[in-house]
Fold these 4 entries.
Entry 1:
Amino acid sequence: MLGVVVPARNEEKAISLVIGNLLAAGIDTKDIYVVDNNSVDDTKKIALSFGVTVIDCKLVGYQAALNQGLEYLKGNSYSKFLIIDGDNEITYEAICNAMKNANNYDLIVGSRQNIKRIGEKIVNKYFYRLYGVKDMMCGLKLGRLTQFNTSNNLSFGIDLLDLSCVNKNRLLNMPISLNARNSTRLGNIFVVNIKLLINLIYFLIRIKVK
């Protein structure tokens, strides 16, 4: 059984589009979980109007929202997860393609064509070399809940999944196009790049020690 996690913070302008795309892709409202990351706008109210479940996450942060959403799925008998960011950057076509391939792969990760942040490019280079994942920070991921690393503690979801248990022959790096968006969920580009590189170093040290 597949559950959808939609991390969202102050996405009142986009959340209805995201939920609408998920419903149009054939996903039932009972399997859609919007994780409201302490929004101060009408994100929660709009999501509830669709009849989906809203999970309140008071700890601000993308990774905190993903953690709470995946923990909820794990505790409610789901076997698979689909992560779709709440900013409507992920297109309807990408969602449909992921769903179409859900039974053919153990892990599907969206692969964006034009990544601007140098920190993301460096992270992706190492994750592709280590695990075959081309775009670790893409806002579309579909996999098995057994891949969820419940002890993750690095920013931006770098260690959210245990990729060492994924068979590369059962991994799909799915090329996707993106909807335009007016802002970024990650913040100042310079600060983000520094944090990404620091967290990558921690990650590489950790797996080397193991």
Note: The two ends are 33 Å apart (CA to CA).
Entry 2:
Amino acid sequence: AMRHVFFSEREVARSPWIPKDTKAREIKTAGVIGCGTMGGGIAMNFANAGIPVTVVENDPKALERGLGIIRKNYAGTVERGRMKPEDMEKRMGLIKGSTKYEDLKDADIVIEAVFENLALKREIFGKLDKIAKPDAVLATNTSTLDVDAIAAATARPEKVVGTHFFSPANVMRLLENVKGAKTAPETAQTAMEMGRRINKVAVLVGVCDGFVGNRMLYAYTRQAGFLLEEGATPEQVDKAIYDFGFPMGPFQMSDLAGIDVGYLVRKERREHAPTNKRYAYTVADRLYEQGRFGQKTGRGFYLYDAERNRKVDPEVTALVEQVSKEHGRTRRAIGADEIVERCMYALVNEGAKILEEGIAARPLDIDMIWIFGYGFPRYRGGPMHWADEVGLAKLLERLEHYYQSADSDWLEPAPLLRKLVKEGKTFRAWAAA
């Protein structure tokens, strides 16, 4: 598994979707729209690589606050002895704040990093199209939204690409680059080369709801949600996933990221696909309505003290039992093996669908996304490599078992998985064919 990760980390930078002789545009200057958590972190990446960057924020106070957080982040690195004070000042000197879009007119790449709202992003790209120079790359830091719909707001969709950074953007290694239907090879190659320059593990993927990482995450976390409804508790699920090798389980992760963030993404999805049962009402939605947003409010799936130490909350246990009752479910004891199988096999199954649909070029692309973006245990090699090691026949047999016993289409085995088992192949063999 570790050998697989070592070689895949190098191979993933060369996407088979980009012709080998494609040249990237040189990035001498960059622009970022939004100086919040994501925008500030993205700006730091450019400054760290010695690339001047202009950060645009509509509200002067928000801009000042954002630049202050960037300085505070650098100061913390200096305090820990990992950076010299003069290097901090040099990097801060590369970051310019502005409230005017016009200040982005000379940037070689502009990355929009505002809230996940399609209408807002389309409005911004319409403005950028009129201001940015003709050969500039226009990128959107969306985690779920349709890059093609955003590109359509411009007269240059071939210059538009998705650049999905992971939070905190100045720390997390993964960069999920998204190639739209009209994204030019040069544009995609520029995004991949940018990733290398700012020390990211860049992976090129296609357009679908949630792309590769978050689409698979949703299959995994919804399965965790079903386990709650059927009899498990948040702490039981989190412990089983932690023991499997993740740094934290799905509910602890939700509290860390912010239950409000997940709720707003689900709300956006429901509005665009109101009949899709995949975005059904959840325990997390109830917590959001109670103002329990996770660590930031001291209450989420768990209770947190001032040092953010967590403990089980009896109110959440009662809420979970109430939701089970409302859904007509009889709660039962659920073991750690079932938790891991249901969550991890659902993850792999969604990965198989993604490969078959051509949203990811290779199983190794999925493995690198999940190791560097979501904490999948490195020593297991990523979900698709791990599935090959478990044995696809065993994985299919257990999926079929859960699919037949559950009142849900969530665990229906992917056609590719059934095909590979029938042919006695692995994901690795399928990719090599």
Note: The chain has 19 helices and ten strands.
Entry 3:
Amino acid sequence: MGIFQKISQGKEFVEEILKILYYYRGRLVFSFAGVALGILSICIIITTIEGANKKAKDIFEVLGPDSIMVWRGGERQRTARVRGVLTQADADRLERIEGVYNITRMYYARSVTMKYKDRKWQSRIIGATTNYFEAMAWGLRAGSPFTEDDFKNAKAVCVIGSKVYDELFRGEDAIGKAILTGRLPMTVVGVLEERGGAAAGPNIDDRIIVPLTTVTSRIVNDKRYLSGLRLKTSRDVDKTIEDIRVMLRENHGLRGTAEDDFTIRSSKDIVKFVTVISGQLFLFLGMASIVALVVSGFVLANLFYLSIQERRKDIGIRRAYGASKRSILLSFLLEAVVITLLGGIAGILLSVMLGGTFEKLFDIPMLFSYKVVVFALLFSFLTGLISGIRPALKASRIEPIEAIRG
């Protein structure tokens, strides 16, 4: 009988709190909205960091720990889009460095407008050697890579990224079809598997891969220079990078403190870069979420102080009928926690709905997991507990006689 009585009392207790929340719903909207925005920021932080870490891990696994990338232009020069510097002769000399193997030569052509039927799309063209797909560990969802014969004869064939396929073909069979790339018609021989967005920069699936000879002889008319190189090493990566730097500086006639006119990166650098981006995002959104939660907690606390003044007589009557200080304290605390938990749930739902939009706008991958829900609800609970504890204590200390008289 005692158990059923406690259940009944608990039910009445919850119903009473819900009625009070409904009665003061107008005032609680501000606190609810503040908590929802704060939790939305926290969810974006967690999902973005999780997604960026996964992307960095995927990139590291695809490139491998033995990969090194070399681009034309130094750190400042690359932003100015320097044309020359890295040459075919450089690539030939790199092949003679101890431990270096599997060199992929690339030329990044300017973005060009591609056309298929009445559909147009602008994307970047990457001219590459035939080992590009193996080096990037990039499989094809349809068709096949271009061949050695295509490369030797500079044939107008291409392998398109999944983004390009979606924009131009929209579900149609692309293999064997011709697309107009600038003024040059090209035959699609393959479609790359989707890799999904990018940790930073342009969409990684928005590209078209063409034989390097086709780009250098039929698109840009530049057979001497390269945009980048990708290679692997069987030696220590850092030692190989130093050897590459020494060789390129010698080849380019750079002496003393002259700045490098090339950039070297390893797969470890990419992971570091993604980590820095995640840290900056964490700092920015973290401050925004803290401010939102502090403001909402402050508003909630003040609303409860105001509510106590208005409900002073009701509190006194409850105390007169036997309600303990503890029950009054728990009642107000539960009200605060329910409000913030509802705001937290709303923030989680908002993050789920806005996640896709955020990815499309900023090309930042977002990965939802149980951590999102756990952290969001934990922060919501703590916000309600901290903001409601002092008003709840004040309400529990109200003397019934004075309250009823007042």
Note: The beta strands are 67-72, 100-116, 119-128, 140-143, 157-160, 178-181, 184-192, 207-211, 228-233, 262-266.
Entry 4:
Amino acid sequence: IHNGPAAANGPVTIDSGLAAAMGVTSATTNLLRIGNVSSQAGFDSLNAILTSPESHYVNLHTSLNPGGAWRSQLAPAVTAMPALSAIISSVSDENLKTTAPGGLITVFGANLAKTATDLSGFNGLTRAPNTLNGTSATIDGKTAPVLAVSPGHAVLQVPVDAAAGMRPVVVSNSNGASAPMMVEILAASPALFFDSEGGIAFKASDNSLVRSNNPAAVGDTIYLLSTGLGLTEPRLATGQPPTDITNLTQPVSARIAGREARVLGSAAAPGMVGIYGSLVMVPAGVPSGMQPVTIGLGNTTSNTVNIAIR
């Protein structure tokens, strides 16, 4: 891999380690070579590739063509500025357009990042990054941790000291900064996570995911995942995943199939940023089948998700 834009030559910064003496031949298949990067120039190049892949190219050198048999830029040049088109809660319900301090939002748009990634490969993080693959963001002028990026979206945490009201969100990358888009921040804006099969709930007894083939029963305690529940005590710093119990400063209520459900506790989810867990007991009288679930804080109520009950 060389550093250099299209039509310009640049130095080798990451060498594959392949050599003619190895007798490498590949007539009909791809070659996969895993190499170690240990030099500062190599590390700098890796970071720059993620931020501006168009400024780097692969060049294959052979014994017949020592100057290079072919080259290809890692990505086409993208010079357009980031542009925002929508902001919703990160649970991906398009009707949830408010958020709360410490909660997660998904920002949609164009040219938000040049290389997509998330934090799934980063283990043991003590703080969510403020920049991911060259993309950063602010909410009301405060740095917002970035949990995932792609050209079309970015997942951000709202700073815990963000003020209530309509506040501007700005996303920046190596091309520059977007125009601001406003998002409404409330003291609490509960939102339950869900997927195509229903709400994300786990049985407290064995940590198994509640699904149609693993329904919860009356009397079971389930663990509901959400975001937007507001501040905790003790208060977590922006971007900080909890390592101990950090309870909410407001009580949480819950309803299952329209019946009030006992909430045994709600706190920030250990090891996660911007995600909360609520322990809820399935009340008597809930019928079997897919049943609606909501949680609430104060005068705010979450979206409705369905979970399987037997």
Note: Residues 40-51 form the longest helix (12 residues).
